[in-house]
Amino acid sequence: MSITIIDKDADTAVLPERIRRFPFPFSADSYRYSANVEPATKTVTTEAGEWGARLLDIDEHYLQELAERDGVLTRDPSRMQVLPHMRPAVWDTISTLLSAMAEEYPDTMSFHREGNACRWRNALQNLDVEFTIGDDSSLPMGPLRFLGSQIQDDIILLDVREDTMWLDAGLVTFAADWSFGFDVGMNFLEIHGPVPRLKEEQIITRAHQFLLRLQPGEQYRRTNWTMTIDRRLDTSTETYPEWGPDRGTIAADPALPDRLHLRVEVQHLIRLPHSGAMLFLVRTHLLPLSDIARVPAWREKFGRVLAELPEDMADYKGISRFRKAASDWLLAG
């Protein structure tokens, strides 16, 4: 396996944008589950640059990822589901997010609303469309799929009833080793039941209570991470036969530094202002180890996190068979 020598005094100003804006999730040499919730749109400074100033992040992969999403939905329409009572929440999501995008990207996007009549322009797609809030037929492909064609985030909507939250709608094409179709209709605690340590340490219970206390319009975020082989966004359980076998061979692959990616999800948690539903946006970022190693502090932290991670957590993340090879390569830099 080749080893890349990294200059510890490398100038991060010359790093490409994909590295400078990457949401590197580790602040220490070890990792344990936590709620790690903070207010949305708060800029986070890293050793390479910064991220987080916007609710919706648009990057160099924008058109490519939206085309990939369209392909996934064409092959497997079950990746988008809306239970009938969630239609108002979908429209609430559209008006909330298109307005936010227009505010954050005024040079390329605009959103105007008068009553229920709306006009959305997206210069990145050469798109100019008029639609009516509440009228599903006024948008091509229907409202949720249309929204999924405008943002890179996966969209999850939870209804709040019986003092809990229920996953009753969403569009999820880039799941990290889970199945949206399987989880639809389940409540928040059931969905997170398989995650090791969450129940014993009461992390999920505290997170559940925090979310239920959110007021309409409040926005927070958190990060989560795992690892993915190759730049593959769709690692859902439905497609496991396509990517699962690579987990058993990547450790011995000389191309490991370029093929193995740190996968970070920036998850926004928003209590929608009109419907009261809970919106989870999941934006997935991928960066290969070869790019991680260009930032000396990242190389060392991530290498130590992988080496120290408890085995039950490594098993759940699906990285047990290659995490030592990854850690060894990073720490040898």
Kindly list the characteristics that best describe this protein.
alpha+beta, seven-stranded antiparallel beta sheet, 333 residues
Straight-line distance between termini? 12 Å
Number of domains: 1
What is the count of helical runs?
13
Please compute the radius of gyration using only Cα atoms. Answer: 20 Å
Mean pLDDT: 93
Strand content is 15-25%
Helix content: 25-40%
Strand count? 12
Strand order of the largest sheet: 1-10-11-12-8-9-4
Describe the sheet with the most strands. 7 strands, antiparallel
Shape descriptor reads: globular
pLDDT < 50 runs, ≥5 residues: 1-10
Structural class designation: alpha+beta
The ordered H/E elements are HEEEHEHEEEHEEHHHEHHEEHHHH
Describe the structure.
This protein is an alpha+beta fold and 333 residues long. It has one domain. The chain has helices at residues 17-20, 62-75, 87-104, 143-148, 180-183, 188-191, 203-212, 240-243, 256-259, 289-292, 296-308, 311-317, 323-331, and strands at residues 38-39, 44-45, 50-51, 80-82, 109-114, 117-122, 127-132, 154-161, 164-171, 219-229, 260-271, 278-288. A hairpin with a 2-residue loop joins strand 8 and strand 9. Helix 11 (296-308) runs antiparallel to helix 13 (323-331). This is DUF3445 domain-containing protein. Pfam families: HODM_asu-like (PF11927). It comes from Arthrobacter cavernae. InterPro entries: HODM_asu-like.
